[in-house]
Amino acid sequence: MSIALIVAAIVAVCVWQREAVDYLVYLWGARQEFSHGPLLPLLALWLAWRKRGTLQSAPRGPAAAGLAVVALGVGIVLLGDLSALMAIVHYGIVVMICGLVIAWLGPAAARHIWLSLLLLFLAIPLPNFILNNLSSELQLLSSQLGVAFVRLFGVSVTLDGNVIDLGTYQLEVAAACDGLRYLFPLITLAFVMAYFYRAPFWKRTAVFASSVPLAIAMNGLRVGTIGLLVERWGLGMAEGFFHEFQGWLMFMMSAGVLFAEIVVLSRLGGTWNSWRREFGLDADEPLRAGAGLPLTRLTPAVTGAAALAMTVAVFGMLSPTRVDAHPSREDFTLLPMTEGAWTGRRDRLDNVYLDALKLDDYVLADYRADGRAPVNLYVAYYDSQRKGESTHSPRSCIPGGGWHIREIAPRELAIGGARFAVNRVVIERGDIKQVVYYWFDQRGRTLTNEYLVKWYIFWDALTRHRTDGAMLRLTAPVLAGQTEADADRTLEDFARAMVPALRPYIPS
């Protein structure tokens, strides 16, 4: 009876947050670095099943703590609903599941299946703004390692941002080759291996810690190998089935290196016996004959925790959908292309970028004024920044175009008697240099920190029922014979002319 009640509560929570569950399933299929996600709940169930003998004899203990954990999970889910971070909702659901398990088993018994509960958290993808920043850094590192590997074979190659120039061919190290697709699965595999590995703590820690540099090194090797194959047989070696097969092969090689590491560590201490012995694969404590699992009895803790979860879920399903307030604003199609001495020409984003950005309105235009370098203006506006649809930071997007971020620092602009801070970024690609200013205009606040943007989305959703906002980016090249200071003066003059003109299009 208690098992059925726990399952019913989990189903009710998932139905209540079906949008979050659907999005999680989508991420497992769309992001290769989390394609192992569906396997982790199954692995968690198997690991818990192996402990059934231990759970049978473990003391139940006071299980009221489970009710508190369920309440905590409810709070986290509601926090996620108010913020733009779907991952918070996912973590809240997992916390609620953990609370139900604790109420069912009791804290003492639940400690025996801590790995199963932890695997549920590892199945949750990180928020996009963290992944994007991490991805861009790993792309650059993979490119550098790949180029170093190619040069070992005497091949002439240059690196321009994320673009590997082989002379005849150019390869872009895209997000699919950033190393994340190895990093998270390999970290999870190394953690499970370290858990089963019967060895001193320092050896188990070494196995787990080695997964990070191993994933990065193997991805650099993969990029370098692709470069060598393209140099010999053409671009076909970097596309289609062969590209995917090479990724799978590199991951299997990484797993093999982890197993080899365990063998070496065991032999260093002279303890190697067999794989079954080293990994503790012998059966857990057996069930006592005829005893069964004393976990079916309905207790007040199980009833209370399940009732709380189901009550909140039903109330959430019956409550009207929370709708953001959308203040009136002008559409960017009405933005004049002449402002003071500056005259602009509109451009447009390709559909592939629009599909990824999920913005509601934008303007992209190149402006010119006599005697000045051209300035590119890009403003992305979102009516709502909930559930993963929010402003993207140029810090994440710039490296994907082959640009190298040489410098990033805050800078203060004075416009219309007011002063506000922007991020000043100097980027390079070969001999080309540009200066970029960007900032986030969030419901009257000018912000430069991506994490503060997320905080104010939550706070304003709670207090003002608003999550709209924009990201503004100004870009000017450093022309031949000019300096970065010249580009700064151009951007500041353009900002003084254009930023006030944008106010009707970005509500405060």
Overview features:
nine-stranded antiparallel beta sheet; flat; alpha+beta; 508 residues; 3 domains; Protein Transport Mog1p, Chain A; three-stranded antiparallel beta sheet; 52% helix
Based on helices, strands and strand pairing, what is the structural class? Answer: alpha+beta
Taken together, the total number of domains comes to 3
Average residue pLDDT: 84
The biggest beta sheet is recorded as: 9 strands, antiparallel
What is the approximate shape? Answer: flat
Task: For the record, give the distance between the C-alpha atoms at the N and C termini, rounded to a whole number.
Answer: 55 Å
User: CATH class of the largest domain, please?
Assistant: Alpha Beta
Question: Radius of gyration, rounded?
Answer: 27 Å
Fraction of residues in H or I helices: 40-55%
Task: Report on this structure.
This protein has 508 residues and is of the alpha+beta class. The chain has 3 domains: 2-125 and 298-318, no CATH class; 129-278, no CATH class; 332-505, 3-Layer(aba) Sandwich (Protein Transport Mog1p, Chain A), CATH 3.40.1000. The chain is built from 19 helices and 12 strands. The strands form 2 sheets. Strands 4, 5, 6, 7, 8, 9, 10, 11 and 12 form a 9-stranded antiparallel beta sheet that branches. α10 (180-196) runs parallel beside α13. It is flat. It starts with a helix and ends in a 10-residue tail after the last helix. The mean pLDDT is 84.
Brief digest:
The chain has 508 residues and is an alpha+beta fold.
What secondary-structure arrangement, pairings included, does this model have?
Elements: H1 2-16, H2 18-30, H3 39-50, H4 52-57, H5 65-82, H6 86-105, H7 107-110, H8 114-122, H9 128-151, E1 158-160, E2 163-165, E3 170-172, H10 180-196, H11 201-209, H12 211-233, H13 240-268, H14 275-278, H15 300-318, E4 338-339, E5 342-346, H16 351-357, E6 361-368, E7 375-382, H17 394-397, E8 404-415, E9 418-429, E10 432-442, E11 445-447, H18 450-463, E12 469-477, H19 484-498
Helix pairs in contact: 1-2, 1-6, 1-15, 2-6, 3-8, 5-6, 5-15, 6-15, 9-12, 10-11, 10-12, 10-13, 12-13
